[in-house]
Write a structure and sequence with these properties.
- The structure holds 2 protein chains of 2 kinds.
- By secondary structure, chain A is of the alpha+beta class.
- Helix content of chain A is 22%, strand content 37%.
- Chain A has 1 helix and 5 strands.
- Chain A has one helix spanning 57-74; strands at 6-12, 16-21, 24-29, 42-46, 50-55.
- Chain B has 16 helices and 8 strands.
- In chain B, the strands form 3 sheets. Chain B has a 3-stranded mixed sheet. A 3-stranded antiparallel sheet of chain B has the order 5-6-7, with helices on both faces.
- In chain B, a hairpin with a 2-residue loop joins strand 6 and strand 7.
- Classes of the chains: A alpha+beta, B alpha/beta.
- Chains A and B meet through helix 1 of A and helix 1 and helix 4 of B.
Chain lengths: 81, 398
């Protein structure tokens, strides 16, 4: 039940990238990523170590909307619809 | 968990106290967000199911297929054999990718062996095309099924490429050669004479005398009556069962070892090493071969199909089980007034990493001759049982 939270690429040297999601920064390996990425792109991370695929900004925004809602539910807040 | 929690995904924290190569204290705590399935509630079933593959990454296909089956069970709808085959292809292909990731990448990295990055990348690239080989233009996860336009050429080529890659990278054999998993002699010979990431890893396990590490009294999950699980999930208001599942006090192990306990190689290794590392790792390899077979069989059962009429959403309760790379996954849904009133997900990690589950039993029984090897051995045991979230391990003492 690993969650697919998108992370935004802050900087990259081509083989690794510094990414951020919900305020947490991670240095991830790009070896398994089929596409190239640049700062401002969104990626999905697996095992907190590898970027595994790129998502477009629209899909990332939709994911963040759902994860925001999930966090509110987990925090015991009302589900906003 | 708060609205600004930095680790929404959660993790397993495994705290070990050790003395003289033996584990004297153990605590396994999970911060996995079991209430995450609440995101699926108060929505129309179709909308809820469209969310599953967006929020769940590792086993998104299995989650989506299990969700579809649970909703279809609730509304009393059976999908066509072609649709069933398409879903089997999605689950099996995903499982192959997950097992290869673990055995070619994570596990070797854990004991300072070279991982097979190129192979994992090639497999992932191929598997990413599977949904489009089944449903070229639409979303595949529709209640009641969707229009299937099978790209058989693409699928056959993909299956052949994966078969070739597994032969070379996992077994160091020519494509088409029989896998050395028929019996213990063939397996031992392969391990000694063939040079691949897994064979090197298993030789290292042997050289370090860790073959039986983690052997303990465990209960392998049998074929359970889904109604028994459904009853527990239906009553699981506080999510205590989804967090720490047991049936009549028994915490079962689910996954490769449970599925293949009667396989001749696994039974023979269990005679020699119990359910320690060697038997467990071999079970993952046998499981990989079984998923390949399942993928081939499911591809053979595929057929083109026009889009079926969408079934009526009626109120009801449904449960579904899907076998995944890490074990059996259950979804339970209650539909009221045409909306999802309640949704529960029981993932294999909750059985396998239960504080009284197989990892805990294996660690409590474990002993290493060289205390400096304890950490590495414990990490291998965790990875071979295979949680679906990251884990953090700390060892006090040695």
């Amino acid at each position: 039940m690993c969650l697919a939270i998108p992370a935004i690429v802050l900087e990259t040297d081509g083989s690794t990238a510094l990414v951020e999601r919900y305020g947490e920064q991670l240095r991830v390996d790009l070896t398994l990523l089929p596409e190239t990425v640049a700062a401002g792109d969104y990626v999905i991370i697996q095992s907190r170590r590898f970027a595994v695929h790129k998502v477009d900004a629209e899909a990332a925004a939709e994911s963040y909307r759902l994860f925001d809602e999930m966090q509110a539910i987990l925090a015991g807040g009302e589900q906003k619809k | 968990m708060t609205g600004t929690d930095k680790n929404l995904e959660g993790a397993l924290a495994i705290r070990i106290a050790a003395e003289g190569g033996r584990i004297t204290g153990l605590d396994i705590a999970s911060s996995r967000p079991l209430g995450a399935s609440g995101i699926l509630e108060n929505r129309a079933p179709a909308e809820a199911l469209s969310i599953l593959p967006i929020v769940f990454s590792l086993c998104g296909n299995a989650q989506a297929v299990c969700g579809l089956a649970a909703v279809e069970n609730a509304i009393g709808h059976a999908v066509s054999p072609a649709e069933q085959a398409a879903r089997r292809v999605l689950v099996a292909s995903e499982a192959v990718g997950q097992i290869l990731w673990r055995i070619l990448l994570d596990i070797p990295t854990a004991i300072d062996k070279e991982p097979a990055f190129d192979a994992v990348r090639a497999v992932r690239a191929g598997l990413a095309r599977v949904p489009r080989y089944l449903v070229p233009k639409d979303a595949w996860n529709r209640i009641g099924g969707t229009a299937l336009t099978i790209n058989r050429k693409g699928l056959d080529a993909l299956v052949e490429r994966i078969d070739g890659l597994i032969a070379r990278e996992v077994f160091a054999l020519e494509p088409g050669a029989p896998y050395p998993i028929a019996d213990i002699d063939a397996f031992d010979f392969w391990m000694a004479e063939h040079d691949s990431v897994p064979s090197r890893l298993l030789r290292a396990v042997g050289a370090r005398r860790l073959q039986a590490f983690g052997d303990a009294e465990i209960s392998l999950m049998p074929d359970l009556d889904p109604a028994a699980i459904a009853g527990r999930l239906a009553a699981d208001d506080d999510r205590a069962f989804t967090a720490r599942p047991e049936l009549d006090g028994t915490v079962y192990e689910t996954g490769a070892l449970a599925r293949h306990r009667d396989h001749p190689l696994i039974a023979a290794l269990a005679e020699e090493y119990g359910n320690g590392l060697m038997t467990r790792f071999a079970a993952r390899i046998v499981d990989l071969a079984a998923w390949q077979e399942e993928l081939r069989a499911a591809v053979a059962a595929l057929a083109d199909e026009a889009v079926p009429p969408a079934p009526a959403i009626v109120d009801g309760t449904g449960v579904a089980a899907v076998e995944t790379a890490r074990g059996r996954l259950y979804h339970h849904v209650v539909i009221e007034n045409g909306r999802v009133a309640r949704y529960r997900i029981l993932a294999p990690t909750e059985w396998n990493f239960h504080p009284q589950g197989p990892l805990a039993a294996g660690l409590r029984a474990a002993k290493v001759r060289d205390p400096s090897r304890l950490r590495e051995a414990a990490i291998l045991l965790v990875m071979t049982i295979d949680p679906c979230v990251v884990f953090d391990m700390s060892i006090a003492g040695a």
